[in-house]
Please model this.
Amino acid sequence: MTEPPDASEAVTGEGVPTGGRTAAARPERAIAGRVAGGVLGAGLLVMPPVVTALAGGAGLLVWAAHVLLGGSVALVLAELVRARLGPVSLAGAAGALLGTWAERTVDGVFAVAFTAGQAAIAWFAATALLTAADGAPPAAGADGLPLALGMLLVGVAGALAPLTPPAALLRWRPWAAGILALVCAVWFWPADPGPGTALAPSGFSEPGALWLALAALFFAGVGWEAVTGAVPAIGAGRRRTAAGVVLGAACVAVACLGLAAVQERGAGAPVAAPLRWVLAVATAAVLTSYVLTNVRTAARIAARLRPGGAAARPSPWLVLAVGAACCAFAWAGARDGGVPLLLLGPAAAALVGYALGAAAAVRHGGPPLRAAGALLLAVLTGLAVLAVPFLSGA
Model:
């Protein structure tokens, strides 16, 4: 999960400007980089252990379904905005094509979802630190709450500071997260986070756990909408745009499915204490950096809900309010399966935003785009309808 691009800037999902020359000369690669950069982030660290805990041997299938659905979303959104809009956020695209109510809806659900997502990230980092101390993921409870709240407070304090992370740091952060995720997968760490831990709730049926894994993966998929900023900025034709999106989805598939495959074949041997602490501290540091930038993003999105509130930097009071909401979600997440259950917030926001994008395609697209938008809308609606009984009946 990374920062969605600001409505007023043609930037990557991390807020890093892209090179105009590269985009003009190789638009497919530029679009692919923006798609992959938008999707791959904190989810690389958080989701492989969560999916393994919930889906077990079916994890690869869940990841494949996620990438297929996310790539389809990106293709529809890319074609929707390609010749109709300038570089905008998903909310801006929805507002331009469906009306102000759609823009406010997307901004509203994403503002709330980002706070729940940061609480989930903090709980995962807290679980990693407790696992380093105990050698195995601890049973669910409030033991990790002080660590999770402390991480959120550090992130909020950083978000309040009048400093902007260097562009080079933001550009290399997904690589650092990916390398660290690969090392964790190779060592199968955190090891065996079974039911009753923060990563997997107890009492879910096997189908319910699979649906929870698929739904929670929408957290890792927040970023497919990066095409709404990238595609108009790069200005490629229909075929090159589609090729770029497909290439970006393929990069995401290689990264996610590769991590899932390594995770399934992890060593399973006990990890030595020094290595446990290195992995835990590195995981907490990388995830704290995501909390910092995502708290700022949530505050910026919330500011847009007020007329004339789309300031470049939100007020400190709004950042504090977002931080308080993150802490409240963290408090609520002090239960078994708290991490994937908190991730249902970003999942719901992605579902709403992507469904509105599909509806805009049905309303404004030509015959092929209308058909694709209608199919995507039907799939998203069907998944939601099918998932609710399993997730609510556990």
About this structure: DSSP finds 15 helices and no strands in the chain.
